[in-house]
Amino acid sequence: MIYIGSHISAAKGYEAMGKQALKLGANTFAFFTRNPRGGKAKEIDPVDVEKFLALAKEHDFGKLVTHAPYTMNACAAKEDIRRFARETLEDDLKRMEFTPGNYYNFHPGSHVGQGADVGIDLIAELLNEVLKPEQTTTVLLETMAGKGSEIGRNFQELQSILERVTLREKMGVCLDTCHIWDGGYDIVNDLEGVLAEFDQIIGLEHLKAIHMNDSMNSLGSHKDRHEKIGQGQIGLEAMERIINHPKLQGRPVILETPNDDEGWAKEIAMLRNLHK
Ligand code: FE
Ligand code: FE
Ligand code: ZN
How far is the CA of 211 from the centre of ligand 2 (A)? Predict the structure, then answer.
């Protein structure tokens, strides 16, 4: 059993997303809570949500891996940009409670020259402001490729954020295969070693979801250019080992590959076939 899916447009609401996921052969999916570039989110229709929840239950969907807008920078140097991040997070977490118990993933942010230590403190501070004891959503920090001044370029940076968060149990990590490869973690030749390092620094029990993407670039390139599964520098064999690794079972696997619907349906079917 594997929970696998792709990103789906949220434009037509929840039930439409669920139906689209089924069309692609998916049993989980990701969507942007609002335009990926930011802006106001669409009003949620409770009737639409009810229909979706029934459909997800009927088809045994795994946890959804909702994605925050890319433009959100929790550790920006400018106060107004950080305020936008806080307001977005607060609003998104409220919205997430319409579909209880799912994942909300975000890019930790870019420190824009303030230094990683300042960035890490700002991100943790913001999380401590917005996380609520009663929320059912788990907030995930995404592993990043280390492009520019991105925080989350290695497992230590993510752990430094996590250990500063008071409601630690509301947090987890989403591992992006393209990003960690670009970040210098050799999941092709040393998957065991990389997972052992993750386990030692963060703990594999905190790894909640996987973004499965091949990479256009080489190990340690810090580029973050996704490629179709099996067509990049990571390759299909490594992907097969990842989805079948005993320590990674049960997590939702989300494709963020450069594809149209047909391409995603093919990749989902291919990975289902490779999953033993
Ligand atoms: Fe992402
Ligand atoms: Fe990703
Ligand atoms: Zn990426």
Answer: 5
Centre of ligand 3 to C-alpha 226, Å, is 6
Question: What is the mean pLDDT of the segment spanning 235-256?
Answer: 98
Ligand 2 center to 16 CA (angstroms): 23
Six token digits for residue 68: 């925050």
What's the distance, CA 236 to chain centroid?
21
Contact 104, 140 (CB under 8 A): yes
**Ligand 2 centroid distance, CA of 199 (Å):** 20
Distance 107 CA to ligand 1 centre (A): 6
Token pair 């029990």: residue: 205
pLDDT tens figures, 127-166 = 999 999 999 999 999 999 999 999 999 999 999 999 999 9
Angle between helices 14-23 and 261-274 (to 10 degrees): 60
Q: Report residue 13 as tokens.
A: 């609401």
